[in-house]
Structures are given as C-alpha cells and as structure tokens.
Specification:
alpha+beta; Aminopeptidase; five-stranded antiparallel sheet; three-stranded antiparallel sheet; globular
C-alpha cells in the first residue's frame, strides 16, 4: 500500500513555498554551511551532506505525521531556504520556524514567507497560537517575529539551549493579559 503525502504549494508575490525535492540538497547544504545558520541553529557545527539529506527527509516525514512541516522556499527559481511549522515530540507547541540562505536575507523575503505560512497554518489547522523559539542573540530572526506581530512571552530550554519564546496569534486574536 502506498501512502501519499500532500504538501501544498503556497505563492507570495516573490516566492514559491513548496515540497522539498531531491534537487534541493545542494541548496540546503549551502544554507546549512553558512556561518550565521550554523551559529543559530547548530551551535556552530557544520552539517554533513548526509545530515542535510536526513533533514529534508525529516521535513517531508513530518507532513505525513502531523499534516504540516517545512516548505522549501524558492526565489526566482532558486532554493532560498526553509520555512514552515514543525512540532517535534519534545516541543510544547507547534513552532513557526524559518531560515534563509545568505543571498536572500535583508530583502523582506523571510517576513513575506513566514506571514504566508503563518496565515495558511492558522486558517488550515485552527491553531490559536504558534511559537517561534529564537536564540536571544538572533536579532534578525527576532526582527521577523516582531514585524509579524509576535510577542516574546518568556524563555524555554530546548535541547540544551535557552531560547526566547515568541508567540504568534491569528490576525484579530485578542491577547489575554
């Protein structure tokens, strides 16, 4: 028996958010080798090509297990990063997570893509909130969260790191004080 995993394609004015393809491996490996990505996501460690392949397989597998996961981000036909909703077993709630390769940073693309995934996930799954777990020194990522209206609610210890716990809510959702 074959199980099909349906991964939608989302489009923004400048981006295509789609399922990972085997051909994305080189782009993902290049992004994961970037010093900023390594610093904030992998404690400075470079991922091997095999680990990047496993990361893509994990991303696709989460779609089958949760119904959501990472999208590959494409700009002008080129792999630009990964953005999506992930929820590993040890996460307290779904996380809106994002990373773009260096040539695509500083142009508002992350904000554009994260807004599209956020709005899609809130509409599709009825979440009342999603988190973004961001290392305190990651000002670029915190800036995306801030521009999208997320609020820092505290900190969380995850897998040996302490991250700021940012919370995204659907548009128009009241915030309890």
């Amino acid at each position: 028996m074959t199980t099909l995993i349906e991964i939608p394609t989302l489009r923004t004015p400048r981006l295509v958010l789609r399922a990972f393809r085997a051909a994305d491996l080189d782009g993902l490996a290049a992004m994961n080798a970037d010093a900023e990505v390594r610093h904030f996501l992998y404690a400075g460690r470079a991922l091997t090509r095999e680990e990047c392949w496993m990361q893509m397989a994990w991303a696709v597998g989460q779609w089958g297990l949760r119904g959501y996961g990472f999208f590959a981000v494409e700009a002008d036909g080129i792999f630009a990063g990964r953005i999506g909703v992930l929820h590993p077993l040890d996460w307290p709630e779904p996380e809106l997570a994002y990373a773009l390769d260096a040539p695509f940073r500083g142009r508002g693309l992350a904000t554009e893509a994260v807004a599209a995934v956020r709005d899609w996930a809130f509409a599709r799954f009825g979440f009342t909130r999603m988190a973004s777990f961001i290392l305190p020194a990651n000002a670029r990522s915190a800036g995306v969260a801030t521009r999208l209206g997320a609020v820092k609610e505290g900190t969380i210890a995850l897998r040996g790191f302490t991250a700021d716990w940012w919370v995204h809510r659907p548009a128009g959702a009241g915030v309890e004080v």
